[in-house]
């Protein structure tokens, strides 16, 4: 199995870096603070911007109250990097893209302090282009984050491959028009049949190129 693309767009949490323990620790504290169960909070938040989750759980809160919670969570999540590690194959894949000059960006729902902290804690190569919470008006599952990511690489979204693990992010990338490599995609997930490739690990991915048209070829082994 192979795909062709001119650029590559990566989600961060759950795709390149395992930050699950940090995310759940911090959001469980949020749940305790507002009287919501950990299961209720955790089942909603993944892949979504923090502001979306805050407005979901605090529909009656004022803008000032929302921002207070936002900065409280941001501080916790940016300072707590215990257990953050690169997921298998992530460092090797990004290093390979740098070696062959392939353009790539990180497209994350996190803020700059959170995203940079996790990238550094995981030992991931730093991208030239970041699309973070601060740069979007509508976060995932809206297509805007991946449209901005493709724009940062100076290519149309259809010429980019997006790597995602969360349902909201996969929907965002598909709606933007990207080809999508999903790192896990549960049976029954909406739009699963539109995903080009589903892998269990980035170790299954290799990239060659560029060819005379400036295209890079992505090869996938051991498809799930």
UniProtKB/TrEMBL annotation:
Gene3D superfamilies per UniProt: HAD superfamily/HAD-like, Putative phosphatase, domain 2
One GO MF term attached to the UniProt entry: sugar-phosphatase activity
EC primary class: hydrolase
Keywords per UniProt: Hydrolase, Metal-binding
Segments passing through the bilayer: none
Highest taxon above the source species: Bacteria
SUPFAM superfamilies according to UniProt: HAD-like (SSF56784)
InterPro entries reported for this sequence: HAD-like_sf, HAD-like_SPP, HAD-SF_hydro_IA, HAD_sf, PGP-like_dom2
UniProt key word Zinc: no
EC number(s) reported in the record: 3.1.3.-
Official protein name in the record: Phosphatase YfbT
Organism whose genome encodes this protein: Providencia rettgeri
Gene designation: yfbT
């Amino acid at each position: 199995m192979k795909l062709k693309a001119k650029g590559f767009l990566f989600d961060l949490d759950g795709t390149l870096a395992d930050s699950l323990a940090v995310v759940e620790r911090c959001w469980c504290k949020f749940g305790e603070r507002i009287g919501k169960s950990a299961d209720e909070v955790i089942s909603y938040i993944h892949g979504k911007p923090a502001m979306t989750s805050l407005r979901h759980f605090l529909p009656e809160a004022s803008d000032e109250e929302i921002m207070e919670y936002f900065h409280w969570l941001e501080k916790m999540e940016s300072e707590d990097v215990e257990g953050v590690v690169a997921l298998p194959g992530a460092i090797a894949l990004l290093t390979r893209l740098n070696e062959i000059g392939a353009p790539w960006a990180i497209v994350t729902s996190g803020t700059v302090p959170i995203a940079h902290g996790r990238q550094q804690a995981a030992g991931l190569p730093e991208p030239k282009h970041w699309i973070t919470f601060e740069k979007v008006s509508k976060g995932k599952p809206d297509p805007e984050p991946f449209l901005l990511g493709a724009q940062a690489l100076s290519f149309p979204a259809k010429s980019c491959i997006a790597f995602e693990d969360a349902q909201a992010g996969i929907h965002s990338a598909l709606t933007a028009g990207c080809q999508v490599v999903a790192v896990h995609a549960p049976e029954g997930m909406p739009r699963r049949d539109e995903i080009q490739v589903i892998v269990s690990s980035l170790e299954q991915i290799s990239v060659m190129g560029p060819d005379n048209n400036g295209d890079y070829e992505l090869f996938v082994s051991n498809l799930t």
